[in-house]
Specification:
Layout (H helix, E strand, L loop, with lengths): L2 H75 L5 H12 L6 E6 L3 E6 L5 E5 L5 H11 L4 E2 L12 E10 L2 E11 L1 H8 L8 E6 L5 E3 L21 H12 L4 E7 L2 E9 L6 E6 L5 H14 L4 H27 L9 H14 L4 E7 L2 H8 L1 H17 L6 E6 L2 E6 L4 H16 L13 E7 H4 L6 H17 L5 E4 L1 H22 L3 E10 L5 E10 L9 H11 L2 H21 L7 E4 L2 H4 L4 H12 L6 E6 L7 H14 L2 E7 L6 H6 L4 E4 L2 H5 L5 H19 L3 E5 L4 H10 L3 E3 L7 E2 H8 L1
Parallel strand pairs: 15-16, 18-19, 19-20, 20-21, 21-22, 22-23, 23-24
Antiparallel strand pairs: 1-2, 1-6, 2-3, 4-5, 5-6, 7-8, 7-11, 9-10, 10-11, 12-14, 12-15, 13-14, 17-18, 17-24, 17-25
Helix pairs in contact: 1-4, 1-6, 1-7, 6-7, 9-10, 14-15, 16-18
Amino acid sequence: MDEKSLKRRIRKLSIAVAVISVLILTGGVAASVNLRTILQDAILTQMEGEAERYGINIRRQIDADIQTLDTLAGFLQYSNMSTEEFIKGFRFTQRHNDFKSMGFFGKNGEGISVLIGSDGEREVQVDELDERAADIVRNAWEGRSGISGIYDPADTEENMVAYAVPVYADDMVVGALTALAGTDRFADVLEGGTFLNKNGYIHLISESGRILVRSEKQIVKEKFDTIYDNNYIAPDEQKRIRKTLSKEESCFSKFTYEGQDYQILLSPLGINGWYLFCVQTAQSISGSIYQLMTNTQVITVAVLFVILIIIAYGYRLIYRSNYRLIREAWYDPLTGAYNMAKFEYEVAPVIEKTYEYSLAAMNVRQFKFINEIFGTRVGDMLLCRIREVIADNISEGEYYCRSSADMFYILMKDTDRSVIGARLEKMIGEIGSHSISDNRDYRVLIYCGVVIGTDVRDKEPSVQKSVTHVRFALNTARQSVKKSIWFYDTRLHEDEKLENYVISHMNQALENREFKMYLQPKIDLDTGKVGGAEALVRWIPESGRVIYPGQFIPVFESNGFCSNLDMYMAEEVCRQIRKWIDQGIDPIPLSVNQSKLLFYEADYIDNMRRLVDKYRIPADLITLEILEGLAMENVDELNHRIERLHAIGFKVSMDDFGSGYSSLNMLAGLSIDELKFDRGFLIGLKDTGEERSRQIIIMNEIVKLTRKLKISTVVEGVETKENEELIQSFGCRYGQGYYYSKPISASEFSEKYM
């Protein structure tokens, strides 16, 4: 080989090595930049999630403080104590919390204040308080509990917040119970966790940017009054942040300190204009990439083997330096499973390109109870066990993640319900065998929701849609006692659409009077004539389609709208009775259901009195039906309300007796006028043999007892002549059911029975 040929080969080899080096370097840089972008997005998402968690903890602290004051206020409500006894109660309460001082202010503006560590008390005027504290005292006089902004009282050397709750006497506010607490309770919350796994910290600031509570961990060494001082945040960013804070919105930004950029998140708490100022302190990963590029430029003059070794070594450095960030961005720190962001990233191609999949959501029944009773350590061990069981039971190409708390998602390739059910039952069995601490008698119960791609076939499939479907199925499984696995199908899809319709149209429907009153007669078993009727509700939109109570009442009970509907129905009952009277028809008594939420509203009884006065009807024509669960909480308070209703003329009935918490002691303690047997009693009598005999004895004896207590009885679910003859033999007063009539419109009822 001549010199020219050798040079030519060396030149070609050098070019090849250079090209390969450049390609490898370019690919490595591109991959690193892409990874850095993905990691940065994941970190921002994680910052939002953790900020929300810390915000919840602060709100829980505030709720707990207000709960403590409400408890004492409730005690004061039923007491007629002297000033000395008030003070004694304050001091006893202080021994069980860390309030700095407590006080009571009557609506005349005069009050007393008790300071922790002091044997005395002092008289205080509301006008002497800081304006922020005085404002919440006045709000408490109007029935609203609250917390003040953070301020520095004149007689203390630390920042404080004030709480105030109303104190009632005979359902009227007579004063305000107050407490003064240090902001160290919020500092403890902010310092009590490991924000971003110790790669960040949180300040509490006001909407003006003033720092209210500082984290002990911080990057900026100087102590400034506001986040804008010294212009560490660029002026343009300051303007954007001020504008965002004025709208009570969250935003991301950054500041530069000692040549290093730091990511920040400002998240509103929704309390007094407070914000969480969250700082991510992890160093930028760009330095490692820059070092890799520099090293690569230096070694391009070397042989390909050396270049590859150095690049491999550089990759190893990048991998090691970024491993922790990768774990934080994609993995659940407790169980090591994928987090939701990584799960969505992996399953999106499957869900968006094929229907051949099933998505399952798995949850633990009463997981909060496990944490509270056995401790969070036991709860964490259970979550790790669930992760192990899922990992042992999935195949290649299948994915799982822990989303939050005790929520796990599993993507499987199976679409056959029997196969999916068997796989999930196997997992449930293995998880159920897990021992909770030393309590081997406690059984872990799991429930699951499942959506199958081939069952749904969304036209525009997405992970978000599938998750929505599976959570709807999971919610159905949660409400079921006997069935632990529910599949999302056409019926559930229709239920989901109906629920969305109910929530979005309920207020307008009430305004448009789309809720119609239907009546079902109560037959007097002695005379065979109509002795009354129960008012039931049907939702009939303009389309004419009837929406039945079972389709919207559970939604209303969960979102509180049932109070509005119950009061609406009470007025419909009054309107119907007035109509009969105006037509010269002797009215019959009507009963109407009243929810727990409405029954315990402060102005409920006054509103009912106004209704009968408005329509000029006798209150004794209306029976208010309550559920037996009300009696399980506070019998004395319940009886007090019933007595006030009796004083107006209303009658009170206990509905669905026997469906849940029934007890004979409860009957003895309640001042009710009527007892309605749940239809389950008659259904139970369809059994034969000894079981039927026992049911008959129980029902017969309860009826005898109600007669002695002078409580009228109504039996629901009468469907046959045999049912009627049986309850007649017991001595029941009224029968109600399809044997007599289904619920019919008020106009049809009037024509048929009145």
